[in-house]
Amino acid sequence: MNADERSERLEQLFRQTFRRVMAYCLRRASEAAAHDAVAEVYAVAWRKRRQLPVDDEEAVLWLLGIARRVLANQARSQRRWARLLMRVAERAEPDPPPATDPYGAEDSGDGLAAALAQASDADRELLRLAYWDDLSRGDIATVLGISVGAVDTRLHRARQRLRQRLTAANPHPDPPDASDPSDPSREKDHAER
Fold first, then answer.
1. Which residues contact 97 (CB under 8 A, 6 or more apart)?
2. Does the pLDDT value for residue 105 go beyond 80?
């Protein structure tokens, strides 16, 4: 594939995947940060267009992997900036205001949001890929750069930890309604996908 064909292929991929990549970023960052991340994703893809997979689905997963790394870089930058602001604030005034929860768990009162906010970044990312982005185990493995077996193990452990947090937050839940389709016990095991 020559340079013109690669460029045309990337432009076509941009038109086909923009909404999906934007949705992925919006679920993980504020709107402004998501727009910045998507712009950076396609800039990185342009610079690495020689590595662009031929298969369309592989190309989408490749872009989601880039988006994951771009968002991680953004988060690291924000943490560095916050630490710098805290150091400056400590010198200016004795009691800086407390930071707010970026996931909104304290405001919503939602047990699941609170449990996810307490989860590690790795668990949160894995659960989002599996259940919000609805990726298969193989797709998750591609995005994270790990084996399918590692996805199975990590997903199982992440669900266990999430279940423990939910149980701790609500030790006496109402018994599930057998007719409720949103009941997690009725959910098809993600490992079967």
1. none
2. no
